[in-house]
Design goal:
- The chain has 179 residues and is mostly helical.
- 82% of the residues lie in helices and 0% in strands.
- It has seven helices and no strands.
- The longest helix has 41 residues.
- The two termini are 27 Å apart.
Length: 179
């Protein structure tokens, strides 16, 4: 998260100018209500990609290494985006960030942590079974509560994706119009 904030504040030259130009044009078009709705498929892909990868990586030994990398990447992307908005628009960037990615993040981050905690635990257990002396499990690792967690997170992530498609553009337009 810290690396994302530092990276956004240390953009230089043309990249900084391009980012500021893009964000300024986006906020102007959002304030005018000139935004096209997101596609439903893209919104669901965006909402489910990292959580689904984390869930699936919990079924493998390699998940022990890749799950932390996915968590770090998601944290970097969120912090970079918010820091760039704040750098570009000052305090108003906080409000744009809340409208643009705040609601999705409030839903996605707890889901990602819930899935990552169990995925990391199960990947660690599978690793110790593969490379350690313990070759059997005392209880099933992938039991019904494991899949219930994913089902509950899927419902929450679906709500997040539907918000992105149907409401986020209106919220961003409302916020950008008041800035």
């Amino acid at each position: 998260i810290v690396i994302g904030c530092v990276s956004a504040y240390n953009l230089g030259g043309e990249i900084d100018a391009d980012a500021i130009s893009f964000l300024t044009n986006f906020s102007i078009s959002a304030a005018e209500g000139d935004s096209t709705p997101s596609s439903l498929g893209y919104a669901f892909l965006n909402a489910f990609l990292i959580p689904s990868l984390i869930f699936l990586l919990g079924f493998s030994v390699i998940g022990l290494l890749i799950i932390p990398v996915l968590l770090a990447a998601k944290g970097f992307m969120l912090s970079f985006s918010l820091a760039l908005l704040v750098k570009t628009f000052g305090v108003n960037g906080i409000w744009l960030g809340i409208g643009a990615i705040g609601v999705q993040s409030l839903i996605a981050i707890p889901c990602i942590f819930i899935l990552a905690a169990y995925g990391g635990y199960s990947a660690l257990h599978l690793t110790t079974m593969s490379f350690g002396k313990q070759r059997t499990m005392a209880q099933p690792l992938f039991n019904p509560p494991c899949f219930l967690r994913f089902a509950i997170c899927s419902v929450a992530l679906s709500i997040s994706a539907l918000y992105e498609v149907f409401l986020s553009k209106s919220v961003i337009s409302l916020i950008a119009g008041k800035l």
